[in-house]
Design brief:
The chain is α+β, with helices and mostly antiparallel strands. 45% of the residues lie in helices and 25% in strands. A hairpin with a 2-residue loop joins β2 and β3. The two termini are 25 Å apart.
């Protein structure tokens, strides 16, 4: 029994920017992902960041959510069973499905 919730995107955006050494920002109507300088880092870290950059692909809908400051997440832990909340960030086809569902719900209201 999963629940879809909105969470603050700031900690996730900051982790993404630090992990991949990029900045996610809005310029006009477009969202850009710019690489930061790696010259002041060790060769081992530069190699690690280059490897991460080659596999990095940020979905446009997820980038939009980063900029808006809210992410959709799915809570997968059962309430009352533990004292903490476990879940995951929605992305890909699952995110598209829930975005369509939310738009339909908002149109009816």
């Amino acid at each position: 029994e999963n629940a879809v919730v909105q969470v603050d995107a700031t900690p996730f955006r900051l982790w993404y920017e630090k992990h991949y050494n990029v900045t996610v920002q809005k310029t006009g109507k477009h969202i850009t992902v710019d690489s930061a300088s790696v010259e002041d880092k060790s060769k081992k870290v530069q190699k690690k960041l280059a490897q991460r950059q080659s596999k990095r692909d940020l979905d446009q809908k997820l980038a939009d959510q980063f900029i808006s400051g809210r992410l959709f997440a799915c809570v997968s832990s059962r309430p009352g069973q533990s004292g903490r909340c476990d879940g995951y960030i929605l992305e890909g086809k699952e995110l598209e499905f829930y975005l369509r569902k939310m738009q339909k719900k908002n149109k009816r209201a």
